[in-house]
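Hey, weird one. I pasted the Peptidoglycan glycosyltransferase sequence into the form twice and got a warning about non-standard characters only the second time. First submission, copied straight from the form history:
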Amino acid sequence: MAGKNWLITVCGWLVLAGLGLGACSSPSGPAADEAAETYARRREVTAAPTHRGRILDRHDSVLVDTRLNYLLAVPQRPGLDSATTVALNDLLGWPDSTLVRRLAEARPYPGARTPGPIQLVLTPAEAERVRSHQAEWPELALAEAERRTYTVGTAAPVLGYQAANAQPFINQIVKYRRGRFYRLRNGGVETYYNGLLTGHRGYLHPLVDAAGGRHGSWAPDTAFQDGQDLHLALDAKLQAYAESLLGGRKGYLVALDPRTGEILCSVSAPTYAPAALTAPDQAGVRRQLLENEDLPLLNRPAVLANPPGSVFKLVNAAIALQLGAITPGTGFPCDQSLISCVHHHPEARTLTLGLQYSCNPYFYQTMRAVIDHVPDSLVADTVGARHANLAQWQRYAQSFGLDTLLGVDLPREQAGFLPTPAYYDKARHTRNWRFRSIYSLSVGQGEINLTGLQMANMVAIIANRGWYYTPHFVRGVGTGGPLPRFLVKHHTLVDSANLEALVPGMLAVMHRGGTAEASSLADVGITIAGKTGTVQNDEGDDHATFVAFAPAQNPKIAVAVYLENAGFGATAAAPCAALVIEKYLRGSIAPRRKRWERRMQYRGRSYELAHRLGRKRPPPAPVVPPIAVPPVAAPEGR
């Protein structure tokens, strides 16, 4: 029998290998008289997932769940007359114009007639009203279906959608945007963690003879796993607050906990409701989102890379310190024959003062000291020295998580870009380029491009003095923690002492004479270390940027803000970041900054209104009674 068992084992492997053996017979010999046997391979389901996991925020508030939805089928033919429309609005408890608006939002374009009736999503209370008056409205049909339901109207790019529910939206993208549709597809954590949310069936894989007897397994058994809940690091209240500040403006705001890499909020503006992409009565809204010239469907923090502006001076300074090109006590004159500096300030005699004033000539000369340094070994080859120095700069900058995929748990993350010597050789058509032709790198412009997630991670590295965890949205899966790769600590190539040398300058930015002194939170005991930036834009108004972390000596939050066509970082981006920091650390906004808060929120709403009305600019801000606030700082240099 031992020989026969050996043969059965071999035949099992041959069957698995696809060799098509229908039966295995015993060899001639003592066992030749035994009947040959064929074992059938079976796959038996032991259990199937019963539900899809929920998505919760860091305080365990449910953001997405599978719940019973009520769908009201409204016939298109014959159409509803005005009296019927008014009566139906009254039945549902809606204002007079609501039904017309809801029907328009459900049509893919004005006047479109879809096959069959239009389905409107109702609340349980609205559905109960229809059910109780069903005899009076025989033309209306009320149906029930379990659907993925969003309990919030925020964080759309983060939450994303289940692909099966978003097919009408995906079809619209492919038809409308054609080759660029992939940039607008963002399934968020719903898609990224789909397998964990869905769960999987349990399977047994027995080998069975003709009598039903079992003879081992032809493959390892699969354990049953029900759908797992996702516990996000996202703070739903902070997310909603940050979205109220940006509203319809173009840009992003990302805040994370530098101690863990957990993303506290991620705003991509213009904002929209997550249900707009999957609800059956939002086809018209989806078309408006697709046709919007500001591309609200782009997940800006993850996929849109832009020049960072003066905030990148922090990275350049850290690398220059590491390479010995400057020291914390190095000073440079504000020589505007090298590069313009758009405001007047005292001479930057130290690195701290250079950061405080954001002096462009100071950082021009800092970067020049890095690129034009010629070591003794290359004294006869200055071209080779510049190539080696730029390659070294790029390698150090890349260690900040730049010019590479961070590995964030969202689909379609982009890598940004840092130029290399080979890039300039090709772009300039010569190896003999000089620093003067690449000096824009010194102020974070030119060929440098960073995403919002990279900007926030960059300032988190400085907050940690040289290390970071990969930024991530999910802090726990089921009853466990995040994915293992989010628990791996990464270190930069810059020493902690050199990153520590940046902090006094970042603190000075927020003090009197600094470029963001008006955004200080010293009155409530919060010390912010920040850096403003203004990105020159030849096609319109400049872009405003700001990065910061707080409290400075025990960082709990790091923030990056980028507002397109908003002007100076000190006056546009810094107040948004300061409000988010105060909201997170204190839970409320001090009375003296309520004026800022109203102004920022008004701007966000005004831009949304301007988009609806087709205007390029929002209406002017309302007159707000003046209160005692610190003076607004002079605009900082690009």
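That's the output from the first submission. The warning seems to come from a hidden character in my clipboard, not from the data itself. Residues 302-522 form a domain with the Beta-lactamase fold (CATH 3.40.710.10).
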